[in-house]
Design a protein that fits this description.
With about 190 residues, the protein is an all-alpha fold. Helices cover about 85% and strands about 0% of the residues.
């Protein structure tokens, strides 16, 4: 049952999950590819597409409606200030690697849209960064699956528990980050 659900909706779930934030769903996708439920190239392609689509959308929102949207979301101010400081020093590196900076993934393309970075430059660097991120994170999921197989031996009876544990850990990490960001916004 689990295998057929993953086979039917796995790539769509990876696309949607990486569109929204996605490290956890991509690790799970890599794990599912290791188990043979999905293909690793398919997981990487779905993650790449979801990430690029999301980042381009946020870039264009920042470019077109940045100040107006920022006025309605004061909680974004601390993260945007941090991104702007990073952009002043390392703009190319920030564009290539922001997906790896937890908590800044969604706000960075928005900030980039509000910055001096040209649309063409962002598009090219965004494609490169998304490809790198999709490969690295999917491979982490693959390695976790391989390590779990070696540690547990007959992982078949534990795989659902392991996937559930990864989902719970990811949700808890997201919740912790969200609560921390809200507390920081309230202090300011």
């Amino acid at each position: 049952m689990l295998e057929s659900l993953i086979a039917s909706y796995g790539y769509v779930a990876i696309f949607v999950g990486t569109f929204l934030e996605g490290e956890t769903i991509l690790v799970l996708g890599g794990f599912a590819a290791r188990r043979g439920w999905l293909t690793l190239p398919g997981v990487i392609a779905a993650a790449f597409a979801g990430s690029v689509t999301s980042d381009q959308l946020f870039f264009y929102l920042g470019r077109r409606h940045g100040e107006r949207l920022l006025a309605r979301r004061p909680r974004w101010q601390p993260a945007l200030a941090r991104v702007r400081r990073l952009l002043d020093r390392y703009d190319t590196l920030v564009i290539l690697s922001f997906r790896f900076l937890y908590g800044l993934r969604n706000v960075t393309p928005f900030a980039l849209g509000m910055s001096h970075v040209s649309t063409a430059r962002f598009c090219v660097l965004n494609l490169i960064g998304a490809a790198l991120w999709a490969v690295v994170i999917a491979l982490i999921g693959w390695v976790i699956g391989e390590a779990a197989e070696q540690m547990i031996g007959h992982i078949k009876r534990y795989e659902r528990s392991l996937m559930a544990a990864i989902v719970v850990a990811g949700a808890l990490l997201w919740l912790w980050h969200t609560l921390r960001a809200r507390a920081a916004a309230r202090r300011q």
